[in-house]
Amino acid sequence: MKCRLIILWAMSFFVNAEQIVVASDIWCPYICTDNSGYVVELTQQAFASVDIEVKFESLPFQRALTLTSQHKLDAVLAVTAEHISTFSLSSNHVPIGQYTNDFYTPVNSNWQYSSLKSLDSKLIATILGYDYGESLNRYLENHNSHVRTSGEAPLKTNLYLATKNRIDLLIGNRYVIDYTAKQYGYSSDIRFAGSENKSTALYVGFSNDDKGHSYASLFAQGIENLKQSGEYQAILDRYQIAF
Questions:
Q1: From which residue to which does the signal peptide run (predicted)?
Q2: pTM exceeds 0.90, yes or no
Q3: How far apart are CA 112 and CA 130, in angstroms?
Q4: What is the mean pLDDT of the chain?
């Protein structure tokens, strides 16, 4: 009888729990498939601590940004301050990670990043909708040899292009590139070629309406709950993330 009551209570919680719908593209170990990834887990657990259930949807990043700005999604994960401004999103500016611009080439290349000038004449692969910082964004806008990929697994596409020597280099985050390359068996076909050595904070961007403002506030409260309980650091440690 006691077991039955517990099951009924659990069913009642999930039926009646408020649900927030968040989205982003796959960017493991930040955002992975099957509701995993440290940003996904932080978001889920933070909202769970204030009795809100999170439904995560995998979407191309540009589409997730657009739908959130149109109030068709509640939030988009792993955005920068530039995204928040450009798409008029709501945010509490609680950082959930950081991003660096790192450079990778095909394994047979000896090119090394030294400055923006060193990118001249190189065919560069990036991802549509990503923010690479003011300086690099401006450079890429005026760079003719530039491939922008999209879809639900754009980094996989860029890695494939590098392994086939169809691009000179790709730009991304070292955590993500190393993880994804290992996942798809590309690790031995690419090489790390330096970093811009600038860190950009990442946030959760919420729709800019009353509901979004409320969720932003509740998320800040939830993150504080996780920090006080120790679960925040436990999630970071599970994914070997430090920031």
A1: 1-17
A2: no
A3: 22
A4: 92
